[in-house]
UniProtKB/TrEMBL annotation:
<dbReference type="Pfam" id="PF14690">
    <property type="entry name" value="Zn_ribbon_ISL3"/>
</dbReference>
<feature type="domain" description="Transposase IS204/IS1001/IS1096/IS1165 zinc-finger">
    <location>
        <begin position="44"/>
        <end position="86"/>
    </location>
</feature>
<feature type="domain" description="Transposase IS204/IS1001/IS1096/IS1165 DDE">
    <location>
        <begin position="156"/>
        <end position="300"/>
    </location>
</feature>
<dbReference type="InterPro" id="IPR029261">
    <property type="entry name" value="Transposase_Znf"/>
</dbReference>
<dbReference type="InterPro" id="IPR002560">
    <property type="entry name" value="Transposase_DDE"/>
</dbReference>
<dbReference type="Pfam" id="PF01610">
    <property type="entry name" value="DDE_Tnp_ISL3"/>
</dbReference>
<protein>
    <submittedName>
        <fullName>Transposase</fullName>
    </submittedName>
</protein>
<dbReference type="InterPro" id="IPR032877">
    <property type="entry name" value="Transposase_HTH"/>
</dbReference>
<dbReference type="InterPro" id="IPR047951">
    <property type="entry name" value="Transpos_ISL3"/>
</dbReference>
<feature type="domain" description="Transposase IS204/IS1001/IS1096/IS1165 helix-turn-helix">
    <location>
        <begin position="92"/>
        <end position="141"/>
    </location>
</feature>
<dbReference type="Pfam" id="PF13542">
    <property type="entry name" value="HTH_Tnp_ISL3"/>
</dbReference>
Length: 339
């Protein structure tokens, strides 16, 4: 079998394309596969698919899977057409996506490796820049989103996560029913989340029954302005409710302890963690000793209501309504998350 026939077959190249020349560069350990196009075959606009007259062609190169230990490059003159509707556009080739410098098979291999190893490892072992890997990932995400289509979920989850040592945040929107990430925003601002909401059809916005989130004002405001009836649908994650309430109780305890100490009283001394403790998990003896303090007239004493609020998220058959007492947000009544 001739080398051109061999490469035509192993690359899966079909008419009107064919492998015309295979060159081996022993010094650079590189194989260049020249792919030609049969003259006179019809050309189509890649946007509308209509047959269009040829305009010119551009020389293009794509990195393909290695041949043994040799880096393998595909080269071809890709025709451009002059579409009456879309102007001069480059036609598509069957082995790569538009504007990609790699064949589809090479990109699939990179994606497989990225599932197993870090970006820096893939970059080092495959001789790719971070920008090249990012481009491959972006195209894979675009293909995946196109395949997935529109998803309407009843239960949304919105969270933020930090990267680059907590200097930057991204917004992650997920379908809590299916556990699928629906959107990743490049920041945690209101405008970004609103833009995503606006990309949804009205029927999907109407279908949303609950939106679970922390108390980040940008998420709250974007949701209030975008989701019909959001005031009854926002569910604060109980972890964040407990965290803010715990901080509020501790702040009151510290202030009151200072005042009491000035009067020579040590009622609240060494009680910091008693107030923050989940009563259900407190050892019986400790709970008995703490009861007197909890039921006293101290300002810190409303603490038990905090425990009720935090517990309701896990003990109620249905999420109950509650108003968080602190935490920077004093908006409408909310439902404490049941997750
Ligand atoms: Zn066109």
């Amino acid at each position: 079998m001739r080398d051109t026939d061999l490469y035509t077959r192993i690359l899966g190249i079909e008419a009107p394309w064919h492998v015309s020349i295979v060159e081996v560069d022993m010094a650079d350990r590189e194989i260049v596969v020249q792919v030609g196009r049969k003259a006179g075959t019809k050309l189509c606009c890649p946007i509308c698919g209509k047959e269009s007259p040829g305009y010119d062609s551009r020389r293009r190169r794509w990195r393909h899977l290695d041949t043994c230990q040799y880096k393998t490059i595909l080269e071809a003159n890709v025709p451009r057409v002059e579409c009456p509707e879309h102007g001069v556009v480059t036609t598509s080739v069957p082995w790569a996506e538009p504007n990609a410098g790699f064949t589809a098979m090479f990109e699939a291999l990179v994606i497989d490796w990225l599932k197993e190893a870090s970006t820096s490892a893939v970059s080092r072992l495959m001789g790719l820049s971070w920008n090249a890997i990012d481009g491959i990932m972006q195209r894979a995400v675009k293909r995946g989103l196109a395949r997935r289509g529109q998803i309407c979920t009843r239960r949304l989850g919105i969270d933020e996560t930090a990267f680059k040592k907590r200097h930057d945040y991204v917004t992650i929107v997920s379908d809590q029913s299916g556990g699928m990430v629906l959107h990743v925003g490049s920041d945690r601002k209101k405008a970004g989340l609103k833009e995503w909401y606006e990309s949804l059809p009205e029927s999907c916005l109407q279908a949303i029954e609950s939106v679970s989130m922390d108390m980040w004002p940008a998420f709250i405001n974007a949701t209030l302005e975008s989701v019909p009836g959001a005031q009854e649908k926002i569910a604060f994650d109980k972890f964040h409710v407990a965290k803010y309430l715990g901080e509020a109780v501790d702040k009151v305890r510290r202030q009151e302890h200072k005042v009491l100490m000035a009067e020579g009283r040590e009622d609240l001394k060494s009680s910091k963690y008693d107030w923050l403790y989940n009563q259900a998990n407190m050892p019986p003896e400790k709970r008995r000793n703490f009861r007197a303090l909890r039921e006293s007239a101290l300002k810190t004493a409303p603490g038990p209501s905090r425990n009720w609020l935090c517990r309701c998220g896990v003990t109620s058959a249905k999420p109950g309504r509650a108003r968080p007492g602190s935490g920077g947000y004093r908006g409408p009544c909310v439902v404490v998350s049941n997750r």
